[in-house]
Design brief:
406 residues, alpha+beta, four-stranded antiparallel beta sheet, three-stranded antiparallel beta sheet
């Protein structure tokens, strides 16, 4: 027997799973009967209170499982917008059903009978038990006609989804996409944060001493120490969960005040920072253009730069140390196999240099290609479904009960 979830939507499955008693203690949804009335309509196709209540309960149960089996409070239901998302999902389903009707999809009586016969919930000894079928529907206050109408609608929706999901990418297109995704640029890359260079600005010891002894600077020093203390404590908290982070001892004020004063003074030396930055940019560019690896390493060590002489960069992620690289320039290097030109990124916060060393093409295995082609059907189906719903949302008349979210 086919998987039940492929045959019925979750709210239809909930009907045949057994007698469902919906409690509204948590949802706070009142003003509509649990079995009659409409909460919304989509181009005249109703969303009944029963459908909404069952879909809402399904979502509440799902969230409760995420919270360890604990039921959600009214505040949490509002916070996660569960009622709104439930209705949006049902509206989307009605859009798809209406679209299936526009395409003249249908389900014959024999098809419907076969569907019902296959549900083990209605079977006794492996065969359809008519009395069991009627009694189970009656327990849920559903008539056979209404239940069969739900099945017809689900068959229509499933046929439409199967059609949308039958479209797959061609072998050549899939292979080209995979090659592009796996294609790598092997580069030499170096970068730095401009503000981080302040620590390399030389400061006269006399100037530091004068700052410390200036009573007018005492409040600044105390503030700097509190910041230092907070940073170390935060780092130590991280060290508890990350072995790569080393814990540090918070030093007394007197032991760090000179260092704090020096760093503060360095940050105020903007002209000196500009000069240092420009000199470093010039020296790095010269070393990169000439291929002087030794000089690059020397500068990187001296100024604590981010240097990687074999950095792999993908075509869909043209970044280095979270610095976005100019797409056109880096792609031109790959296209022309240009290993001489240096791409420069110079923005208010960062500076980076990128130089192509070589390229690495992907070796696409047959099985990986087959899997990707097969996977494209689900992706294309979802894209088409979303497109239909987006279009329907713009062109359809959707009416909702104003009390539904109270």
């Amino acid at each position: 027997m086919k998987n039940v979830s492929n045959k019925l939507s979750y709210f239809a499955v909930s009907i045949i799973m057994g007698a469902i008693i919906i409690s509204f203690v948590l949802t706070g949804f009142t003003g509509l009967g649990s079995n009659a009335g409409e909460v919304a309509s989509v181009d005249g196709t109703p969303i009944t209170a029963r459908e909404y209540n069952q879909a809402l309960q399904f979502n509440l149960d799902r969230y409760a499982q995420m919270f360890g089996g604990k039921s959600l409070t009214n505040a949490q239901i509002k916070q996660f917008k569960i009622k709104e998302s439930t209705l949006d999902s049902l509206i989307g389903q009605k859009h798809m059903l209406n679209f299936a009707n526009e395409l003249k999809f249908d389900a014959g009586k024999e098809h419907i009978k076969e569907e019902i016969k296959n549900y083990e919930y209605f079977q006794t000894g492996g065969k359809l038990d008519v009395n069991k079928y009627k009694n189970l529907l009656q327990a849920n206050r559903l008539s056979p006609a209404k239940f069969e109408e739900d099945i017809i609608n689900q068959i229509k929706s499933n046929r439409l989804q199967n059609l949308l999901s039958s479209i797959q990418d061609s072998k050549s297109a899939t292979e080209n996409i995979m090659k592009l995704r796996e294609f790598k640029l092997i580069t030499t890359a170096v970068s730095f944060e401009k503000e981080a260079l302040t620590e390399f600005i030389p400061v006269d010891k006399k100037k530091v001493t004068e700052f410390i002894n200036d009573k007018g600077k005492e409040a600044i020093l105390k503030s700097l120490y509190r910041t230092y203390e907070s940073e170390i404590n935060t780092k130590n908290q991280m060290a508890k969960n990350d072995k790569k982070v080393k814990a540090e001892k918070v030093l007394a004020f007197d032991k760090v005040k000179k260092d704090l004063a020096k760093k503060h003074i360095q940050k105020t030396m903007r002209t000196e920072l500009t000069t240092l930055t420009e000199d470093l940019k010039k020296n790095l560019s010269a070393a990169m253009e000439s291929g002087n690896s030794r000089e690059l390493k020397k500068l990187a060590k001296r100024y604590n730069l981010n240097l990687n002489e074999k950095y792999e960069m993908g075509l869909f992620n043209l970044r280095y140390e979270n610095i976005e690289i100019k797409q056109d320039e880096i792609l031109n290097l790959a296209k022309n196999k240009d290993t001489k030109t240096v791409v420069t990124v110079d923005n208010p916060n960062n500076f980076a240099l990128i130089k192509l060393v070589s390229t690495k093409k992907a070796n696409i295995e047959d099985e990986a290609l087959k899997t990707a082609i097969k996977g494209s059907t689900a992706r294309n189906g979802q894209i088409l479904r979303n497109s239909i719903i987006d279009y329907k949302n713009k062109t359809s008349k959707v009416l909702t009960n104003p009390n539904i979210f109270l």
